[in-house]
Amino acid sequence: MSDQSDNGKTRINRVITRSGDDGRTGLADGSRVAKDHPRIRALGSLDELNSALGVLRARDLDPDLDGLLETVQQLMFDLGGELAVPGTVTLTEEDLVEVESQADTLNAELPPLREFVLPGGHPSAAWCHHCRTLARRAERDLVALAATDDGVNPESRAVLNRLGDLLFVMARLINQRTETPEPQWVRRGER
C-alpha cells in the first residue's frame, strides 16, 4: 500500500511491519513504547473518535455541519501528530477559540434546555452523541497522559473539552433541523 503526500514523497509504503508483535509500537520520533502506554491510549482514543466522526460525516448532514466536522477531523489528526511526536505543539489558542465560537454559533439556533437530554432522536443526532462520548474519553485519556508527562499541550486538552460541548450542541441542532423530537430525561415519579 502506498500513499503519496503533496510533495510526492511516499508517506506509507508498508502496512504490515511485524514490529509491534512484541507489544510495543513506534512513535513518529522513532522511539518505542508499550501499546498500553498512556500516550498510545490517548492516540487510540483519538483514532476511534476520528473514525466515528467519519461515520457521522458519511450520513446525510447539512453542508455547514459536514464542513465543520471535516475541520474537526483535521484538528484531531493534528492532535494525534502532537502525541506521536512527544513535545510537539500544533494546536493553539486560536483553535480553541474557533471550536468555542462554532459551538456558540450553533447553540444560538437552539431553544434553551429545560431538562437533561437523552442521547437519541434522529439517527445522525444519536451518532453525534456517540462521538461526543468518544471525545470525552479522549479528553480523559489525554488528562491521564498529562498527569505523567508535562509535555502535553494544555490547549489540546481544552480543545477536546470544547469539542465535547460542540458535539452536544450539534446533536441537538440535528434533531431540531430534522424536526425530530429531542429525547429528554423524565424525573422518576413523573414517567
Number of helices: 5
CATH-wise, what's the superfamily?
Cobalamin adenosyltransferase-like
Class computed from helices, strands and strand pairing: mainly alpha
What's the mean pLDDT score? 90
Taking the sheet with the most strands, its summary is: 2 strands, antiparallel
* Cα shape: elongated
How much β-strand is present in the residues? Answer: 5-15%
Number of DSSP strands? 4
- Give the H and E element order: EEEEHHHHH
Parts with pLDDT < 50 across at least 5 consecutive residues:
none
What do we call the CATH topology?
Answer: Hypothetical Protein Ta1238, Chain: A
Number of domains: 1
How far the N terminus sits from the C terminus, by CA atoms, comes to: 55 Å
Order of strands across the widest beta sheet?
A: 1-2
For the CA atoms, what is the radius of gyration?
19 Å
Tell me the CATH architecture.
Answer: Up-down Bundle
- CATH class wording: Mainly Alpha
Approximate helicity band: 55-70%
Family: Belongs to the Cob(I)alamin adenosyltransferase family.
Keywords: ATP-binding, Cobalamin biosynthesis, Nucleotide-binding, Transferase
InterPro entries: CblAdoTrfase-like, CblAdoTrfase-like_sf, PduO-typ
Pathway: Cofactor biosynthesis; adenosylcobalamin biosynthesis; adenosylcobalamin from cob(II)yrinate a,c-diamide: step 2/7
